[in-house]
Amino acid sequence: MMSRLRITWTFVALTLLLGLDSRAQGATENPQVQQGDAGATSEKASGSGATTPEPAPARVETEPEHAHESPLLLPGGIRIGGLFDASYERVGMDGGLTSGQNAFRNYHHFVFISRQGDDVPIGFNAEVIGQYFYELTARLWRAGSAFRLSARVGKIMVPFGPDPLFHKNYGGLSAIDQRLLPVVWSSFGACLRADALVKGFSLAVDLYLVQGFDLSARASTLDMQRDLQAYNGARVAVGNRVSLSRGPVTLWYSLYWNRLRFGRSLLMQALDLAIWRPSWPVVNRLALGVGLLRAFVSTDLSYGRPDAIPDAGAYYHFADYLWLRFYATSWLYLQARSGLMTFNNHRGFSYDPGRATAADGSHHNLALVAEYAGAQFSLGYYWNFEKVDEYANDFLRLMVMYGF
């Protein structure tokens, strides 16, 4: 345990000085790369037309050129992109580099196809291997570069939290490691999006209606990774995401609500702030972000009655994160990320020690990432600490990924 504590304090010190995961956006919410722990999916999906075309973001002079590469373009406005990876991992580690077992894994095997363009008023986006999303897109109204209105319908990516749409950092775990939200959060529904430029600020609003979460049984606790299926008729969720950005700074507020069975309902809110490499000396090598999410589930219908089920009261899930990234060059960076994740809390704002389980804990990682010509090489170590019943579940990951 003492060796794990020493490693943790070393990690915290490095976090304060060096770097974490994710990237902020430019003047609009054009998804950017999120890399280092199985993370470039969103940029490739975006480049392949996986989101409705939006005004081009302000170019940050220190951004690497490959961040703006285009997918394969075919006649008729057809675009094709892909993302693939292979990983070597050392899993089940306890803080010692010789602990654990070997594992070889693949997380990304995506092919994206779309038809988009200024001359295509109605287009489409799809991921064709796993069919994670497939949607029709429509350009409804455009007033030069000052205002745009667009729509999506089908199996859409749910616009909750900051872009990239594929990966969230809540809880200090991102991408394929996420334990709170779906790894790829897509759902059947429709979304209306408005983009506006107002006095140097970029404002984007997403209003959407999708199939929501539901409880598998009356006494069950909502699992937002698995409870998206319809148990007794589909639940309809409504949501809204608002983003405001200027230069390298972007702020997001997300709201999501749907009624569950047994009289319960889910109200989920998130607030995120990201800063992507300001143009000032020294800090132009840094990117950082912070955010938190709180998912509140209301009381059961039986609450307060003599025949009330166990745990009929309201509860909430909570997760936050802090990330920081340091660029040594345009193609090499060091990143760090840290976050808390707790489930089924009754008291407090973020954590209820009286209901702690092994699912509650903090997560931290440190990774070195190199990128070149669509390829990415990353080496990272991941610390996972449980609030109770601590067990050996740290891991080391070496990943090679290629996207086009």
In sequence order, what are the helices and strands, one letter per element? Answer: HHEEEEEEEEEEEEEEEEEE
Number of strands: 18
User: What's the Cα radius of gyration?
Assistant: 21 Å
Ranges where pLDDT stays below 50 over 5 or more residues in a row are 1-69
Helical residues, percent: under 10%
Oligomer: single chain
Specify the CATH homologous superfamily. Porin
The backbone outline, from C-alpha atoms, is globular
Structural class of the secondary elements?
mainly beta
Largest sheet: 16 strands, antiparallel, barrel
Q: Mean of the pLDDT scores?
A: 84
Q: Number of folding domains?
A: 1
- Count helical runs: 2
For the record, the CATH class is Mainly Beta
**What order do the strands of the largest sheet run in, or round the barrel if closed?**
2-4-5-6-7-8-9-10-11-12-13-14-15-16-17-18
Note the gap between the termini. 43 Å
Instruction: Tell me which CATH architecture applies here.
Output: Beta Barrel
Which strand-content bin applies to the residues?
A: over 45%
At CATH level 3, the topology is Porin
